[in-house]
C-alpha cells in the first residue's frame, strides 16, 4: 500500500503551479495541499505542539523548530523544519549577529508570522516526502 501511495503522489505534476523567487522555484502550500487532496480526499495533516500547546519547539541555542504530520490510508509521516530567515539562518527569540566573509550580519527574532510561514512550508515539505 505504501508504494502505491508514493507512486500516486510522485506522479502529481505541479509545474504549472510553481512560482520563481530569487532564482528558486516554489510551490505554495495551498497548491500543494489542494493537489494532494484531489488524489487523497481523506488525507489529513496536523501541526505538532509542545507541552504548552504551542505550534513550535524552541531551544535558546538552536532556535525554533516546527513539525507537521500527514496521514493517508492510516500511514503517517512526520516532517520538521527550522524557522529560518531569508539567508537560511536559524531564527531565535532574540536578535543575534554572525560573521561572513562579507562582514557582520544580523538575524532578527522570529515572529509568529515567521513560525506560521514555516509551518506551511513544513507541510509542503512533508507532502513532497
Q: What is shown here, in short?
A:
The chain is α+β, with helices and mostly antiparallel strands and 129 residues long. Helix content is 29%, strand content 33%. The longest helix is centred in the C-terminal third of the chain and has 17 residues, at 112-128.
Written account of the structure:
It is built from three helices and eight strands. With 129 residues, the chain is of the alpha+beta class. Strands 3, 4, 5 and 6 form a four-stranded antiparallel sheet that branches. It has a two-stranded antiparallel ribbon with strand order 1-2. Strands 7-8 form a two-stranded antiparallel sheet. The protein starts with a helix and ends with a helix.
The average pLDDT score comes to 92
What is the succession of H and E elements? Answer: HEEHEEEEEEH
Measured as a percent range, the helix fraction is: 25-40%
Q: What is the total tally of β strands?
A: 8
| N-to-C CA distance | 16 Å
How would you sum up the global shape?
globular
Number of helices: 3
> Which class of secondary structure composition applies to the elements?
alpha+beta
Profile the largest sheet.
Answer: 4 strands, antiparallel
Uncertain parts: none
Amino acid at each position: 500500500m505504501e508504494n502505491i501511495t508514493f507512486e500516486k503522489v510522485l506522479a502529481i505534476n505541479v509545474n504549472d503551479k510553481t512560482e520563481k523567487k530569487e532564482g528558486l522555484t516554489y510551490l505554495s502550500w495551498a497548491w500543494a495541499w489542494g493537489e494532494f487532496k484531489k488524489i487523497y480526499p481523506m488525507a489529513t495533516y496536523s501541526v505538532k505542539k509542545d507541552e504548552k500547546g504551542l505550534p513550535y519547539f524552541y531551544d535558546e541555542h538552536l532556535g525554533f523548530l516546527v513539525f507537521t504530520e500527514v496521514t493517508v490510508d492510516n500511514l503517517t509521516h512526520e516532517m520538521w523544519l527550522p524557522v529560518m530567515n531569508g539567508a537560511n539562518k536559524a531564527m531565535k527569540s532574540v536578535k543575534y549577529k554572525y560573521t561572513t566573509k562579507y562582514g557582520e550580519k544580523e538575524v532578527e527574532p522570529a515572529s509568529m508570522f515567521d513560525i506560521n510561514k514555516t509551518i506551511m512550508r513544513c507541510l509542503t515539505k512533508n507532502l513532497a516526502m
